[in-house]
Specification:
The complex is a heterotrimer of chains A (338), B (252) and C (287).
Chain A lengths: L2 H21 L3 H26 L7 H19 L3 H23 L4 H21 L1 H4 L22 H23 L2 H11 L1 H6 L4 H27 L9 H14 L5 H16 L7 H15 L3 H17 L22
Helix pairs in contact in A: 1-7, 2-7, 2-8, 2-10, 2-11, 2-12, 3-4, 3-5, 3-10, 4-10, 8-10, 11-12, 11-14
Chain B lengths: L1 E10 L2 E11 L4 E5 L6 H9 L6 E6 L2 E2 L5 H7 L1 E3 L12 H6 L10 H6 L2 H20 L15 H13 L5 E5 L7 H16 L3 E5 L3 H7 L2 E6 L2 E6 L1 H6 L1 H7 L6
Parallel strand pairs in B: 3-8, 3-9, 6-7, 7-8
Antiparallel strand pairs in B: 1-2, 1-4, 4-5, 9-10
Helix pairs in contact in B: 5-6
Chain C lengths: L1 H31 L6 H18 L4 H24 L7 H23 L13 E4 L2 E4 H23 L1 H11 L1 H6 L4 H27 L5 H16 L4 H22 L4 H15 L11
Antiparallel strand pairs in C: 1-2
Classes of the chains: A mainly alpha (338), B alpha/beta (252), C mainly alpha (287).
Chain lengths: 338, 252, 287
């Protein structure tokens, strides 16, 4: 994919995002979009460990809850200012992620998923039962809005939207750096095959752990934003159904691409909005859609499109085969042209 | 350059490799042959660090590397290919190769996020190494082709290129000519000789006798996990124990 | 003493239910080599089918259970044919996602049909049996008896019939079984059917004590996973023993430690054991 195309594509998206509040009908639309952005950040994080590194982490929403509750507990119970608490949210998640990863990443892929499923449950149950810390099922109410920075008043929906957008853009930018670097290539090599990656000198545990911690950092940060945006929390934030939602977004958009999860995280909630009657039963539709996608379009919309682009580029870039230097037999395969 | 001392591997009650010793000189092409199930790939796995030996030692350039992890062995200069060539099928051939040189780079997460000079330099070097390796195996023209679209023989060459981009001193090739027709096999054999000429030590597992006999400097024969013969192709061809082990197979 | 025996009874009850669910899961794992996350939804579907047949159609308990077994077996086989079979060459990630898709669909479907409320399932076995100073609710005795009976039946089927042997063969080595002429498709469908039926029946046994609701499969299935990971994926004895262990651990844990945190016990056990032994308790050789 030519660099010019990529840059213009992203710039266009950014412009649209910046202009959105002026195009949106009302505050409700802003809410839908802002919430979508928050989950997009978490989904992009999930994509790093699942899409790029090949480990399906089912505790992802648990880590988002960790970040959310970090903010909630610190601000409401201990009077810590939002921005300070928020700065910590990603790191607290990554800290817990370190220990979870250390134990779980030694496990083979589906053991890893089962293990993380259980970890996610433990997180949910702990949040629900540990009332002295998390307020249990009552949840944390009345989280203060982020403190104003200069003239920016974050209790106002439009400013909140831009705040969330800012962090989304920052997250995407960092993720873009990671994914297109040697580090990103290392993750992909691991996903491609543990054995081959090791034979290429890649330290599996170290890199998997790094990917895991990075991914839950994003999730925790998204959770912190969620706390500051929605302003109340319940154990439901840690529910595994949110991880399933994010899996859906990744799959629709394209696992293992950068824009795929973003696209999915924005398109799917909006679709659900339009199919309002589906809200409660959205999975009656989404369940089979997930299955069909996985069978017929496993690379998602963006992924399939990218693959097609790459094939086309390869066809048009074919240089004529030089006379083979080694073997004496001419191969007809080399003479194939678009 | 590579010394194997009494290497053994037991899986529970099964002895896959039993007390095998061998010595491989620098710049030579060494073949490891034997009937199916003789323990050849297990032997490779023991040397390259994919599995740990039960007993014995592996000395690489005089250094004891027994029981090192595969990635540590790779960093010391041991590269290997596998029977099934796993490539990233939806990426281009060049894209597949760039990560090969990663082990020689030192960039960290901080470099990545800040986009430092070091990262850019190292990525450039990796790309150059990838191109050089691809050129060495004669496939420069396939650089932009999607990896899933190339032929089996080309895949084997790309696998070689991947191993070469790690800047190794020793190459362990597991069935490098698997699934490839006789003319292409000749081409691969020439490529392997070219690698040895450039200073690399090569060990390969193969079943294609004509290829081995013409290519190898020395041959090691395994059967039921034990070494039954070792020597030049001429010696091996005349060795009664080897002939007996192969009796009944279609290889002359 | 009576309290202790009471907990033993509870342990056997829970253990019986968990074993049945885990058995189905472990048999299917042998075929798929991927944990089927939809198994929990099969469990739930069994309960709802029986609920529909018993409470809404007025059938008696046993007909309800039979109906549930057949319905879930059907759903299970359909899943295998329509979803898992097309994916047999795909990477594991896709299997896992697809099974999640099935899970979500079934749960949402149940909710669409019967609402999100909790439902009671009627059973004719509401009496309490008094044995000395022990109170033994008849339903619990029924669960233990039925679970035990089903396990024995299953073992007989697997060990003594040719079809059963083919299932075991495929569960242990799919390629090898195909090489000796075993029809992989038929065996896969049969295994899924059995697994589904077991899960459905387990749900019908347990529901009268526990209520019927759309997420009833969640905790059960996660614990079933713990069981098969600990007991060995693909191992029938492992599923049975594992189920009993978890059942007892929960019963005693709930009583002697805390009812609030009892659900964590199974997960904590898993986390503990896998931390120390990443290959599970009963590491089966190369598969």
């Amino acid at each position: 994919m030519k660099l010019v195309n990529a840059r213009t594509g992203w710039s266009l998206l950014l412009l649209l995002a910046l202009a959105f509040p002026f195009m949106a009908g009302n505050d409700y639309h802003l809410t839908v979009m802002s919430t979508a952005y928050i989950y997009a950040i978490a989904t992009v994080g999930l994509n790093l460990i699942t899409g790029y590194t090949g480990q399906f982490n089912l505790a992802h929403s648990g880590f988002m809850a960790v970040g959310a509750y970090t903010v909630g507990i610190l601000t409401v119970d201990h009077g810590v200012p939002f921005w300070a608490a928020f700065a910590l949210s990603g790191f607290v998640s990554a800290f817990i992620g370190f220990f979870v990863g250390l134990v779980s990443l030694r496990l083979k892929t589906h053991f890893f998923s089962i293990f993380t499923l259980c970890v996610g449950y433990i997180m949910f149950l702990l949040i629900e039962k540990w009332e002295s810390l998390t307020h249990g099922t009552v949840g944390i109410v009345g989280i203060p809005a982020p403190e104003s920075i200069g003239p920016l008043d974050f209790s106002e929906p439009r400013t909140q939207y831009y705040m969330v957008l800012f962090f989304l853009v920052a997250s995407l930018w960092i993720m873009h750096r990671i994914v297109h670097s040697l580090l990103g290539r290392t993750f992909v090599a691991i996903r491609n095959g543990d054995e081959l990656a090791q034979a290429l000198g890649i330290d599996l545990m170290r890199n998997k752990l790094l990917a895991f911690m990075l991914s839950v950092f994003f999730s925790g940060m998204a959770g912190g934003l969620y706390a500051g945006y929605v302003r109340f929390l319940g154990p439901g934030v840690a529910g595994v159904e949110h991880t399933f939602d994010m899996t859906m977004y990744m799959l629709v958009g394209g696992i293992g691409t950068l824009s795929g999860p973003l696209l999915g995280a924005i398109a799917v909630p909006w679709l659900t909005q339009y199919l309002q009657f589906l809200q409660e039963y959205r999975f009656v539709v989404f369940g089979p859609v997930l299955v069909l996608l996985v069978i017929f379009l496993p690379h998602g919309i963006v992924g399939t499109w990218l693959n097609r682009q790459r094939r086309k580029a390869a066809q048009s870039a074919i240089t004529p085969t030089p006379a083979p230097r080694l073997a004496a037999v001419p191969r007809e395969k080399g003479a194939r042209h678009a | 350059m590579l010394e194997i001392e009494s290497l053994s591997k037991r899986f529970g009650g099964l002895t896959a490799v039993n007390d095998v010793s061998a010595s491989f000189a620098r710049g030579t092409i060494n073949a490891i042959i034997g009937p199916n199930g003789a323990g050849k790939t297990t032997f490779f796995n023991l040397v390259s660090g994919t599995i740990r030996p039960t007993s014995g030692r592996v000395l690489f350039d005089g250094r004891d590397v027994t029981g090192l992890r595969a990635d540590q062995a790779a960093r010391l200069g041991m590269a290997r290919t596998f029977q099934t060539t796993a490539l990233f099928d939806t990426a281009t051939v060049l894209d597949n190769l760039i990560v090969g040189h990663r082990l020689r780079t030192r960039s960290t997460l901080v470099d990545v996020i800040l986009g430092t000079r070091r990262l850019r330099d190292e990525e450039r070097i990796c790309r150059e190494k990838a191109r050089a390796a691809l050129d060495f195996v004669g496939l420069s023209h396939l650089e932009a082709r999607v990896a899933g679209d190339i032929s089996q023989e080309e895949r084997k060459r790309v696998a070689f290129a991947l191993a070469l981009s790690t800047d190794p001193t020793l190459l362990l090739l597991d069935e490098p000519a698997g699934g490839v027709n006789p003319e292409e096999t000749d081409g691969l054999a020439q490529l392997i000789r070219k690698m040895a000429k450039s200073g690399l030590t090569v060990c390969l597992i193969e079943h294609k006798m004509d290829m081995i006999m013409n290519l190898a400097d020395r041959i090691l024969v395994l059967n039921y996990g034990e070494k039954i013969a070792e020597g030049t192709p001429a010696e091996i061809r005349a060795n009664p124990a080897v002939i007996e082990a192969y009796l009944g197979t279609e290889y002359a | 003493m009576e309290l202790f025996l009471q907990q033993v009874l509870n342990g056997l009850t829970l253990g019986g239910v968990y074993s049945l669910v885990a058995l189905g899961l472990t048999l299917v794992y042998g075929i798929l080599h991927v944990p089927n996350f939809a198994h929990g939804a099969f469990y739930m579907a069994g309960a709802y089918s029986a609920f529909f047949l018993i409470n809404r159609m007025g059938l008696n308990y046993w007909w309800g259970m039979a109906g549930a077994a057949v319905t879930v077996a059907l759903i299970s086989v359909l899943s295998e044919r329509l979803v898992f079979h097309p994916l047999r060459k795909a990477p594991y990630l896709h299997h896992m996602i697809a099974s999640i898709g099935i899970l979500l669909f079934l749960e949402a479907g149940a909710q669409a049909l019967w609402g999100a409320d909790f439902h009671r399932m009627d059973t004719p076995y509401t009496q309490i049996v008094e044995l000395g100073s022990l109170t033994l609710p008849a339903q619990r005795l029924l669960i233990i008896g039925a679970a035990f009976g089903l396990v024995v039946l299953l073992q007989l089927f697997l060990k003594k019939t040719v079809t059963g042997a083919t299932i075991i063969a495929m569960a242990q080595n799919r390629e090898g079984a195909a090489l000796v002429g075993i029809d992989a498709n038929r065996v896969a469908m049969l295994t899924f059917a059995i697994a589904g039926a077991l899960a459905g029946m387990a749900a019908v046994l347990y529901a009268p004590i526990n209520l019927v609701y759309t997420s009833m499969g969640h905790l059960v299935i996660t614990k079933a996973f713990v069981i098969i990971v600990l007991g060995g994926m693909g191992s029938v004895p492992g599923a049975i023993v594992g189920g009993l262990i978890i059942g007892f651990a929960e019963a005693f844990g709930a009583f002697y430690i805390s009812t609030d945190y009892k659900d964590i016990i199974a997960f904590a056990l898993l986390v503990l054991i896998l931390s120390v032994r990443p290959q599970g308790l009963f590491a089966r050789g190369a598969h």
